[in-house]
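Record 1 of the preview.
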Amino acid sequence: MLKEVDCRGLACPQPVINTKKALEEIEEGTVIIMVDNLAAKENVTLFARNAGCEVKATEKEGNYILTINKRKTFSSEKIKPPETSGTLYLITSNHLGEGSPELGQILIKNLLFTLSEQQLAPQTLFFLNSGVYLTTAGSPALEELQVLSNKGTEILSCGTCLDYYKLKEKLAVGRISNMYEIIDYLTKAEKVITI
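->
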C-alpha cells in the first residue's frame, strides 16, 4: 500500500503526528512524507526509524521527500519511553532564576554540577528555548552534562529551539528531540521538575 502525506508548512510536532497517523492507517507498505524544512525532516526520520521503519530521504527544490517503508513488525510502542521514566528535568533557560544574568548562569552550572554529583542521576534532561545553549559548544556546563550522560541520563534538546538560535550544528552533548517526544516523555514521567 502507498500513502502520501504533505506536511509542508507545518510546524513541529505536526509532521511527526501526521506521520504516526499515516503509519498506523496501513498494515504494511510505503508512506511518502513531504516536508519543507530540515527540522521536520530530521524529526520525522528519527520517529520512523525508532518505530522500526526504513527511511530514505531526498531533497528536491527546497523540499524533503521521505519514503518510509513499514513492515508488519511496526509498532508505535517502540517510539515511546517506558511507562515510568523516573525524574525528568525540563530546563527552559540557560540561566536560573530572575535578576542578574551572570549570577543565573553560575546558578544553572552549579545546579547541573550538583545533579552530576548525586548518586542517583535523573533519568532525562530536556532542554527547551534558551536552555539549548547549555548543550552546545561553548557552554560552561558541558562537563557536567557529559558526566550526567555517562551516568545514563538521557539529554535531549528541542530541534526547533536549536534551529531558532542557529545552534543545531553546535550540539555537543545528547541528541535532538521534538515536541511530540517531549510531550510523550512528560506524560509518562514519574516526576517532572521545571527549571
